[in-house]
Amino acid sequence: MSSLVFFKLVAIFVIVAIGWLVGKAKWLGHNDPARTLSNAAYYIFVPALLFRTTSRLDLMSMPWGILLAVFAPLSAMLLLLYFWQRHANADGHLGVAGPSVRALTAVFGNTVQVGIPMAAALFGETGLAIHLAIISLHALTLLTLSTALVELDLAHAQRKDGHAGTHLMATLAATARNTIIHPVMLPVLAGLLWNGLGLPLPLVADEILQTLGQAVVPLCLVLIGMSLAYYGVSGAVKTAVWLSVLKLLVLPAIVLVVAHWGFGLTGLPLAVVLMMAALPTGSNALIFAQRYRSLEAETTAATVFSTLAFVVTAPLWLAVLAWLS
To answer: Domain with 312 in it: what CATH number?
Structure first.
């Protein structure tokens, strides 16, 4: 692992520790400010980032073959984990949103804070360009899929609990409406529409969106630390460990098999794809968990544990790449 990536990890843990200290000392009050910050991220900063990203995508120059080799296994694993956890949640002990939260935690990677310096240090400008193309669709694909799943479950639960006579089509319509009118999907769809119309972003609007979007990374890192202080990890360690194992070992192994032997990727594209899949859990998984008030403690713990373990697992996957080449 390069010194650039190592120092980036150190900086991440320092910022998380600052968030923990703020939460432990109750400097922002006693009424769960972590949830308030999470709502600010989910309703203000993340939508600004998503709209700006999708409105500026150069769709014609995207490496679609490489992207398909990434997102096919990522989406498949998210769905498999979701259905596995949904089956395990027959008694409802995880809550309605629990299966979606766990699936996203085991699949959503820290592609920005850790991924960008890693790609730049290991693969240079060419590899970084591929990584940035993956980033442009990463949140769009995984958050959209997770949102659709959890909204479907929420509509189904509402139909069972209070509206048993509700028609299936009404449930699907409610799911579609709640999925579209959503702080993740709405800015994505609006950005894609803006992009499709070929309209440039006005300079003032672009500056506003860029400034808001830049707040996502530090806010999310502080939020992880505050969540540790408020929720702790009591009772969440065991689940957080196996979620980290899925994220750091199982997911990259699946992506390697699919990308290399399924899509024929080799060389630099394969290396970028594999190391992207091997990244620790990203902080957007925690924002998602807090949005639906589900499994915040274990999602926080999995984010921290996987980031710590990445120091060990990253060299392992780099050794696998060296062996393949």
So the answer is: 1.20.1530.20
